[in-house]
Specification:
Layout: H1 5-20, H2 24-49, H3 55-65, H4 68-76, H5 81-94, H6 101-129, E1 133-136, E2 139-142, H7 144-156, H8 158-163, H9 165-191, H10 195-212, H11 217-233, H12 237-241, H13 243-248, H14 253-315
Antiparallel strand pairs: 1-2
Helix pairs in contact: 1-5, 1-9, 1-14, 2-3, 2-4, 2-6, 2-7, 2-11, 3-10, 4-10, 5-6, 5-14, 6-11, 7-11, 9-10, 9-14, 11-14
């Protein structure tokens, strides 16, 4: 069983309204878990793709494994900033009584972003202290999984930096495309009424964005900080990896924010809020209002019928 496209968008509107009404602590904890789960999927993808030399196959493996994070978020009701980029604008556009829309967007997006960041950093620290380093006769050394994690982070920061403004623009556009696919995945997850259908619906669009190499700001809150921790702990890794990371002397916080987090976040916002939220609302707004009107008419009819039956009972 599935929802129709109109019902799916209507459900997304209701989800956005529900998020606006969550208490600060509740929303923050959901966002923390959302960031942690996305990071867990990203870490698994990084580990599983380690050692694969063929670029296309490596990207496909990354894409096939990564979706576990978003699947877990959707099925357990946690919160993800990139999803909120669609949910909240949709709910505000569909509401006839919404007051202070800017405040509502700011409330949900800010808490979600901060919670996702902390959750992602927490998982990055676990991976840094655990799977990405191994005990040897020389002490605690970075292993192949850690080297692969650094290489992913270099591709997400220093390659853009080396290209200058064109690199920044490239990351921004990848952010737009990424969140279009992420929110299509979320809508497909809403469309299905059973767990297997939700998993399949979410899986393929997420696999597409990861395999293509688009930029997800929350996933990058894991990918890049874990590499920064490894490079700080093992500065000699710069020499063994070589290339951009050696010439740049590592990855700085400024590199992370300027050349990835800022453009990816802005792109994610536009991709989710404009290309999915605004576009889908415009396409289905009349149908949604008709659906709501029919639902309201049905409720009024039921109330009227119950009242008539009650009166008949009293008369008898």
């Amino acid at each position: 069983m599935t929802h129709t496209p109109v019902e799916t968008v209507q459900q997304a509107c209701k989800a956005g309204t529900a998020k606006q009404n969550l208490r600060i602590g509740n929303l923050f904890l959901r966002a923390f878990m959302g960031g942690l789960l996305i990071a867990a999927g990203a870490a698994l993808a990084s580990v599983c793709s380690t050692g694969i030399q063929t670029p296309g196959i490596r990207q496909l493996v990354l894409g096939c494994v990564f979706p576990i994070g978003l699947i877990a978020i959707v099925l357990t009701g946690m919160d993800l900033f990139t999803g909120d980029c669609m949910f909240v604008p949709l709910s505000i556009l569909s509401s006839k009584t919404c007051k202070s829309p800017v405040n509502k967007i700011g409330y949900v997006w800010t808490l979600s972003y901060i919670g996702n960041l902390i959750g992602s950093l927490f998982w990055a620290y676990i991976m840094f202290m655990g799977p990405f380093q191994s005990g040897t006769d020389r002490g605690f050394e970075i292993n192949n999984y850690g080297i692969a994690a650094i290489q992913i982070a270099v591709a997400k920061t220093l390659t853009y930096k080396s290209a200058g403004l064109i690199g920044w623009w490239s990351c921004f556009l990848k952010g737009i495309a990424c969140n279009m696919l992420v929110n299509i995945a979320i809508l497909l997850g809403i469309t299905s009424k059973n767990t297997i259908g939700k998993i399949i619906g979410i899986w393929f669009p997420i696999m597409a964005f990861v395999s293509t190499g688009f930029e997800h700001s929350i996933a990058n809150m894991y990918f890049i900080p874990v590499a920064m921790l490894l490079l700080y702990q093992h500065p000699n890794a710069c020499e063994s990896i070589g290339g951009l990371v050696q010439s740049n002397g590592g990855i700085s916080v400024a590199d992370f924010i300027v050349w990835n987090l800022a453009p990816a976040t802005l792109g994610n916002i536009i991709g989710g809020a404009v290309f999915i939220g605004l576009v889908y609302y415009y396409i289905f707004k009349d149908d949604i209002h008709n659906l709501e009107k029919d639902s309201e008419d049905g409720k009024n009819k039921n109330k009227s019928e119950k009242k008539e039956k009650y009166v008949e009972t009293i008369v008898k």
